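tool_call: predict_structure(chain=1)
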Amino acid sequence: QVQLVESGGGLVQAGGSLRLSCVVSGLTFRTYPMHWWRQAPGQEREFVATIGRTGTETIYADSVKGRFTVARDNSKNTLYLQMNELKPEDTAVYYCKVHQIGSDFWGQGTQVTVSS
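tool_result:
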């Protein structure tokens, strides 16, 4: 079955950096666009970034543009999110997601906390 496992979250001071990873199994990773979303306490889950199959196409939410970079290594079935210049408002649980026909698959999430 499809599995997504995130890692790399933690506590960081404002202005710091973190790199999240998402290891995917159960599907042909290189054939799917991949996505990062996040959910802050008491708020709805929101889109963060998308990367195309080959990694050459990326889309970012305005709130992270210029600070976050999404990347993938198709040889390792792994998705990444490099987060720089972190702000307290980036505090959230971060999820990776893949969409197959008729279904969305999510990881369990990794907590990112940015202190001011």
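agent: The chain has no helices and eleven strands. Proceeding to next step.
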